[in-house]
Amino acid sequence: LETLSLRMLGCLVGICFFILGLGTLLPWNFFMTALLYFQGRLNTTEWSNGTAVVRTEYYFNNWMTLLSQLPLLVFTLLNSFLYHRVSETVRIAGSLVFILLLFILTTVLIKVPMDEDRFFSVTMATIWFINSFGAVLQGSLFGLVGLLPQKFSAIFMSGQGLAGTFAAIAMLLAIASGTDSETAALGYFITPCVGTLITLLSYLLLPRLVKSSMVENSKPNGHSNGSVTSSPTKGDVVAEAEVDPGPEGPKRAFLSLEQVEKGQAKASVLEVFKKIWVMAFCVTFVFTVTLSVFPAVTADVRTSFPGSWDRYFISVCCFLVFNVNDWFGRTVTTLIRWPRKESRLFPALVISRVVFVPLLMFCNVQSRSFLPVVFHHDAVFTVVMALFALSSGYFVCLSMSYAPQLVEQKDAETAGALMTFFLALGLSLGAALSFPLRALV
User: Fold this and answer.
1) pLDDT by residue (tens digit) across 237-267?
2) What is the CATH number for 223?
3) What is the value of pTM for the model shown?
4) What CA–CA distance (Å, rounded) separates 3 from 410?
5) Structurally, how many domains does the chain consist of?
6) Is 184 contained in some domain?
7) Which of 127, 135, 290, 304 could, after both became Cys, cross-link 76 (CB 3.0–4.6 A)?
8) CB 269: neighbour CB atoms within 10 A?
9) Is residue 164 within 8 Å of residue 3, measured between CB atoms?
């Protein structure tokens, strides 16, 4: 019974990390998949001599991508160096509270009349601040999960992958509801408010679950996964340690860092980087390729079957296909981990993903000025998007979970925080490249 109880608590802890992963990428995905709402409020038309003319072209896709990733890069870098000076609770719970408030503001603005320029400025400012807090949240959680066995990293990143699917399905339901665009957008943005609140509650619940685990472990002849535990190791799901109910409770309860690190000084950031630089390069390159065309290029692909399908095409074939396959790619790493982290084939396969950039640019992207359309059919675009997303999720998850294994246990949190910075660097480089690549089409 004690073993069963510990396993159930371990499952609940895994669920909490899954929800935390989901919560870290909800802001980005909900803004990205709400393109129809934002374009409807921004790209208004006026009539001139009987011809409809767009008053202002805001390039919302490109600016949203860029202003999402720049603060992510800056604040992830700051978090990598300053995370030990601010308590974990302040960084994680505080970020979730501010993200929730900004989502509430976005929801309220749906009912507030506003001219296009002002609405664009307010939306861009909201995106900037949401992603600033999201960077601190993501960096802190990657640092925490880097201390745990690899399966927790996979669970956390699987939750991140599901965030996109969650947002894409919410967008489809909003479109299919048949209500006016304002009401549909209202329901759409209330969803991440609820999701962020659940994420915050999951984080606050985590110390209680760990404390319960410690109570079970403190019983005579306590067992963990069927074997007697003695000292904390990286492989422990829940270490036998005294629970600190304070801000660092979850971290210390899982790994009993006072015992693991006793007499051991942490390596410098540069020393850790020298051990993980290959994985840092891989995660940077994967996201550079992914964000260079998604969504700035892929969201402008048009269906070859106009009609009622047209209003669902981008939501299904671009966002839903990408997010489902990205989530699957992340999740499959719990079963398959190939190539190994020492293999030279791993970075070679990561670099080979660059082939997806021209493939997607040659799809039916409209409007276009320079490149010809090579792949007209929706099926070709959908298959390319599926492989593009699957490889992205798979290699990102492997890179992020391999990196902490390349350093000593005492440096795992530093490795996790550093990898989050390089993840953000890849996102920012991809966002910057999206401007010339879209113009090239």
Assistant:
1) 344 333 344 444 444 444 443 444 444 677 7
2) 1.20.1250.20
3) 0.73
4) 28
5) 1
6) yes
7) 135
8) 16
9) no
